[in-house]
């Protein structure tokens, strides 16, 4: 038996190591391919080898973004069983790449969030290139480490920390905009709290209006179209503001070709335009979903599990749209510094904005998709099932929080992280479950507490009677029988008290959110910026030492 067990373990270990080597092989092949392509396509440029190495690091960073950050978009949907892990990876990879290529923009800010003043480089391209390379590599290494320990962290904060650390190493502390860094630090609290509150609010609304009703099918027929329409409104607004802002003029031209539609031409969509567009689509979605739900209610059972199935398709759309918006926005985390290095190498100067060659955009898009496919499952499982148990309704509430929080925060000028919002949403639905459980247990706990009081009174009375009987010098047969009966009664009362106490203790100990996961994730969030800043500074000095 022991030999069979050892053989089985050996086979599993060989299978796992084989899978790991295969994934590593694909990753290395992609990075070497990017290195080779960059070197050959920029052969006529001085320092083209330096640019090729930067492209390799950009590819490495893009894969780490795919492995770590994308899990927040599809993790809840996978954890709720709305779609399989394979389906989630395919959908996310396609929409991440599409968002990066279609809406990633032709120009990005080379310094993410304006956290350092590039004038401090004095137009000297070399230290600027070294700083950007150090920042990119530091952020990629940190994301790689975070993925290994199953900690979903913000890729934006990773690159921000890297740029800050490398900038300080290159030009001193005065180069940093500390007010901007203060806002970013504030987002560590703002993002998860907003995400958690909004996710919990939506989950509670769905439970009150549908799940807690006696006739769940009738309630679902009335309220599911409303919730899905609200989701459509939020997501269209979110995608318009965050995913289409870089190609908005082309979108306006396309929309104005539709009869009776006239949208004013602007460089970026306004909130009112995005809300109007979202509302029009939400109305259409409402009537479509209402018709679908009405035709399917005869097939539904009057159970929560049956109602849950109505949120499956909306969740798949949510995962796809979140991935598209993420690809459009966060591709800059991988290719922003790379575009800056490319611009500095080609033009020999330092610029706050840089045009993005198609090959650079391709590195970001393909790298994110490949990183997700190879290493994304680790974090997808963590977000989807290892923090709290999710079903379709809970995952739907988290998706709603992800879109609405970004809209609110962007209009208020609050810095938020999509990673922190999503994880905050997971925490929010988990803590709401705990609160609802304790409320449900409230009546039982009161009964148990009253039972303990009553049993103690009985125990006290039986003990007093037993003490009196045992103190008698001469006992009758009836007295002896009563003593035996009292011992039995006392043992029974003690058992009842112990059982009631155990019930109360168990009720108070029920946790729907894993505390160890909270500690690990929050620690990783707080450490991200200083860790990447320190690593970037060290790497900058190493690169500088090599180049001088």
TrEMBL record:
Q: Sorted alphabetically, which Pfam families does this protein's record hold?
A: PHO4 (PF01384)
The scientific name of the source species is Sulfurimonas gotlandica (strain DSM 19862 / JCM 16533 / GD1)
Give an example GO cellular component term for this record: membrane
Name assigned to this protein: Phosphate transporter
Q: Which residues form a coiled coil?
A: 452-479
- Family recorded in the similarity comment: Belongs to the inorganic phosphate transporter (PiT) (TC 2.A.20) family.
Stated membrane topology is: Multi-pass membrane protein
Report TM segments: 21-39, 45-63, 84-108, 128-147, 159-178, 184-203, 223-241, 270-289, 310-328, 356-375, 395-414, 420-436, 522-543
UniProt keyword annotations, A-Z: Coiled coil, Membrane, Phosphate transport, Transmembrane, Transmembrane helix, Transport
Q: Which domain of life is it from?
A: Bacteria
UniProt GO molecular function: phosphate transmembrane transporter activity
Subcellular locations according to the entry: Membrane
Query: Could you tell me the Gene Ontology terms of the biological process aspect for this record?
Result: phosphate ion transmembrane transport
